[in-house]
Write a structure and sequence with these properties.
Blueprint: E1 2-7, E2 10-13, E3 18-26, E4 33-39, E5 46-52, E6 58-60, E7 68-73, E8 78-83, E9 92-99, E10 113-114, E11 118-123
Parallel strand pairs: 2-11
Antiparallel strand pairs: 1-3, 3-8, 4-5, 4-9, 5-6, 7-8, 9-10, 9-11
Length: 124
């Protein structure tokens, strides 16, 4: 069993920055592939970024490329999402996700473990 615990959400003005953290507890092989998703009110959940833990390779949604950076601290079994130049349209609940098998896609179905989410609100 794997537990994912997100933190770091909050409220910020447009142009500001936030860093989200996702700490993983459980079997490390289950978190070979970790990612961030977000869901705004009335919209479907969408993939934001993902990485292979230990390998460093990353993928991003086009909407966040150049503004968001996913990184990891393997010693702490934690993945981060640094969000810069935030826009009001980035407002959403952000979820951490993990899976043993990397798919190199940002699809919900490719992740078997999910956190509870952390709210990010960007005001104009």
């Amino acid at each position: 069993q794997v537990q994912l615990v997100e933190s770091g959400g909050g409220s910020v003005q447009a142009g500001g920055s936030l860093r989200l953290s996702c700490a993983a507890f459980g079997y490390s092989y289950s978190t070979n592939y970790m990612g961030w998703f977000r869901q705004a009110p009335g919209k479907e959940r969408e993939g934001v970024a993902a990485t292979i833990t230990g390998g460093g390779s990353t993928i991003y949604a086009d909407s966040v490329k150049g503004r968001f950076t996913i990184s990891q601290d393997n010693a702490k079994n934690t993945v981060y999402l640094q969000m810069n130049s935030l826009k009001p349209e980035d407002t959403a609940m952000y979820y951490c996700a993990a899976d043993p098998v990397p798919s190199w896609r940002l699809r919900e179905a490719d992740f078997g473990y999910w956190g509870q989410g952390t709210q990010v609100t960007v005001s104009s």
